[in-house]
Design brief:
9 strands; about 25% strand; alpha/beta; single chain; Rossmann fold
């Protein structure tokens, strides 16, 4: 369903990666591994439609996925390094907007990440791990089938990682897809792996 063909990206004049290929079917998962600076986060941003490739194609069901940016955005749920939480809103209020434009209920999302006791607490009072769980809860309200996760276990304890594993398994069982950049093992049984390496120094074409 989702396929990358000979993808290349430059950031400024630096080549991040080139000739990168991958494919993912419904229910599939792909782990992006490699050292810092290899392009894992950049690839996630490209798939999310936030960056344009310098070369190659991103395909959805055989068609150019980026030809209609708004339509492609509806396929994607993206979790970056930042949790993107409004500190002045409560835990539940932070999920309300996602629920209004997506699917599912705030109460279900809170329960799935063990956040129900914190529902009324201002987000500024949450710990780093609790904020990460809140960001993960937002995924459950997103309608898109493709979850893009950048180091999703940052700040999570063992019990929270187990909850994340259950969410990922449920999403895949429903035909969803997961692409995750990570330095640590993730609960994604049967996932494929794509290891990125920093390319030799290269200058963007003029």
């Amino acid at each position: 369903m989702l396929e990358g063909q000979a993808l290349a990206v430059f950031r400024g004049e630096r080549l991040v990666f080139r000739d990168l290929d991958f494919g993912l079917d419904a229910g599939g998962a792909l782990l992006l591994t490699g050292p810092n600076g290899a392009g894992k986060s950049t690839l996630l941003r490209l798939i999310a439609g936030l960056l344009a490739p310098a070369a190659g194609r991103l395909l959805w069901r055989g068609e150019d996925a980026l030809a209609d940016p708004a339509r492609h955005a509806g396929r994607i749920a993206y979790l970056g390094h930042q949790d993107a939480i409004k500190p002045g809103l409560s835990t539940a209020e932070n999920l309300a907007f996602a629920a209004a434009i997506g699917r599912g209920s705030v109460d279900e999302a809170l329960a799935a990440l063990d956040l129900t006791p914190l529902a009324a607490l201002p987000a500024r009072l949450l710990s780093a791990g609790q904020r990460r769980r809140l960001a993960l809860a937002r995924l459950l309200l997103a309608p898109g089938p493709v979850w893009l996760l950048d180091e999703p276990t940052l700040g999570l304890d063992t019990a929270s990682v187990a909850r994340l594993g259950a969410l990922l398994a449920r999403h895949r069982a429903r035909g969803g897809m997961v692409i995750a950049a990570t330095h640590l093992p993730l609960p994604l049984p049967g996932a494929g792996a794509l290891t990125l390496s920093p390319p030799a120094a290269s200058i963007a074409p003029q």
